[in-house]
Amino acid sequence: MSTPSAAPSVLFVCVHNAGRSQMAAAFLTHLGGDRVQVRSAGSAPADTVNPAVVEAMREAGIDISAEIPKVLTTEAVRSSDVVITMGCGDVCPAFPGKRYLDWRLEDPADQGVAAVRPIRDEIERRVRGLIGELLREPV
Question: Which residue of the set 36, 92, 116, 134 is catalytic?
Answer without folding.
Answer: 92
